[in-house]
Each structure stands twice: as structure tokens, then as C-alpha cells.
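Example noted here:
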Amino acid sequence: MGKYFGTDGFRGESNVDLTVEHAYKVGRFLGYYFNNKENGEKARIVIGKDTRRSSYMLEYSLVAGITASGADAYLMHVTPTPSVSYIVRADGFDCGIMISASHNPFYDNGIKIINASGSKMDASVELEIEKYIDGEIPELPYATRENIGKTTDYSMGRNRYIGYLMTLPTRSFKNLRIGLDCANGASSTVAKAVFDALGAKTFVINNEPDGTNINTNCGSTHIEALQEFVVKNNLDAGFAYDGDADRCLAVDENGNIIDGDMILYICGKYLHDNGKLNNNTVVTTVMSNLGLYKAFDAEGIKYKKTAVGDKYVYECMMDEGYILGGEQSGHIIFSKNARTGDGVLTSLKLMEVMIERKTKMSELTRGLNIYPQLLVNVKVSSKALVMSDEDVLEAAKKVEETLGDDGRILLRESGTEPLIRVMVEAKTDEICKEHVDAVVKVIKDKGYAI
């Protein structure tokens, strides 16, 4: 991770950690970097945003920087992150930018940079941007006269993405009653249109964004509303997205949550049973539940573990030719169809399995026994000091030794926030709490917690 760019872009509180000046300089650098072409053509950079109030401010700052450097900016407006990834590669843009802080509260925002292939930008380019922001690179020349860039409305890109999603399912959703929680975010412009076109009877909640209600008691991070909605309205299934719609969690007809690990099991087993799981392997992160691995073992499915972050999942998939991977949080990547996590695509894939197997959503998780898991996020003054503290590490080691093969502990730092994550899986909730509390107590006693 760099000074500004973490595992999922440049993220922070708007005009505190991530300011209009930062956005302008990001635009200035990218416009100059990609405009330096031998054929003399202007660089083309496409921009999408979620529904946060600050997204407009950052969008205009990026555009000012891009055009001042002589590149052209194309605006998709409010649209999911995966739609920007799709359009970059489909329409031959030099790069894409998504303005979003994903699942964070509305007052945070972020800048995600997408390369020409539709995946996340190389860290080497992000490092150069950081140097420019900090004045370690000489000031870049301004474009003048006819070389100044222009801005073009490109809302058609979002419509092309919607059309692409509609082509993927091979079966109609007719007669199925489906609930969607759009988190008052970017999926509000996409999800219902796709499900309606595929024949579902679609019921939508939290699809009236006002700039400050994104992710507020809704979406994949607050799925309780969808659980209640599905049961109350006798729906066949429900899907909840996060602010920029690169995550999806599901709810079965009984109101039970189907998280990212369960989605990987359902889709991995389906692909395996149909001989379509490339290399017979699913890519997970170290946060995936122990129960998932035991279930994969029982099915004869192999798996890989990466660091947390869909960026690392995708890199592993590309390096070794895998087609399915993801995170417990609901970032699921189907590499034949997308280059990043895609919430709406994930919900379509789950619908496909349910329809093809001719069964209820609740029955798709048979054979998977999820271990109780407790995750506590501790806000700290220094992640590095906590992760190198001998007493903290010793406390974690004792938990690991006590659990043995009946559980595990994971101690890691957040890639986007000043948090240390303490996670324990064990046979009971009580055992999880006992061991998490023991490690958190050491962190607090050492004075790191704030």
C-alpha cells in the first residue's frame, strides 16, 4: 500500500483526507500520462461515480485536471464500478476512474483507477501519482489552445453495460419474485432494469438516493431490511448490493443470509458438477470461513487463498487461469464475464444456479456448515505498531494453539481504514468471543486503541 492508495484506491473523508486538490492532481497526472501517445491522438478517460454528494465535486475536479492536461473525459455519471471496468475494455478507453468509497458511509469517498484491460491500475502508476501529489515530480505542462481536452456525456456506456448483463442468463426469470436492496447507491440505475427485462417480478427497496443515505441501514452491510422484506412479501430470493455495486449478498426465501463464502460454494459446486470449473479450483481470501474449505474438501474442489482484497483475488485468477474467486464480503469475480467484483452479475449467476437446479435458494447451501465467526475491528493509532508488537502477536499465537484444528484466528490490518481486524472461528460463538476479547484486550492495554 502507498501513502494515499490502498488496496481499493484512494479513500478517505471527503475534503479531509481526500480533497478537491487531490482529485485535480490525480486527473492532471492521468491526463498527462495517457496523453503522451506517439500517434498524437488525445487520451480518452471514462469516469463513473456513485450517489454520494461529494462525488459531483470530485468528478468536476478530476475532469478539470484531465482536460487541463490535454486528455478527453467521458462521463458515465451514476453507475456501478463494474460498469466502468466493462466500458473501459469494451470501448477502448485508455483508463477509467470510479468515484466511490464502496461500502463506507456517505461522508467518505474514493478514487479507483481502472486500467485499459478493466482491472485495477498497477501499483507503479499509483506510486507515480502519489509522487506528483506530494511535489516530488516537476509540475506537468498545461495543454493550450486546441490541445485542451473536452468533456463528453457518455451515459450510453451505462446502457451498454445493462444490455451486456441482460445477455448473460440462459433462462428466463419469469414467475420468480425477487427483492433487490440497492443501498441507495449506484445499482439504483441498473439492477431493476436488468431483472425486469429478464422476466422477474421485481421488488426494490432503498433505491431513492439523496446524496447522504448511501449504505445507511441498507444494502449488503445492513442486510436486515432485505431479510425482513423477503419474508414479509413471500419472495423467492433477495439480493443486496453495496454503494458502488461491486458486492452482492443474497437472502433465501426464509430470510437467511447467503454471504460471499456461500456464494462461492454454490457457484463453485455448480461449475464443478457441470465440468466447467477451470483447474477445479476456486480462489478465496484468508478471511473465508473454515467451513467453506471443509465443504470444498468433501466435494473434491481445490482452492487457493490470497490476501484480502478482490485485487489480489483477480491477480491470482489471471496468473493461474481460474474462473471463479471472491471474498466473504460479497466481492465475487467471474473472470469469463468481468475483471472485478460485480454485484448484479453475481446475483444473475445465483439465479442461474437456482433455476438450472430447479430448487429453492435455501437448498443450494446443503453440504456447507459455516463455523461461527466473530470479527472485531479495533480503531488504532498505528497499524504497523500493533502488527509488530510482541505481546499482541503472542496473544494471537496462544489462541491459535488453543484452537488447533477446531478453529483459527486471523489478525490483520485494514487496507482502507485505520483498523486492526481480529477474527476468530470456532465451534461456538462463546469460544469465538472469549478468544477475540483476549486479543483485543491486549491491544487496548498497550494503548493502541483510539
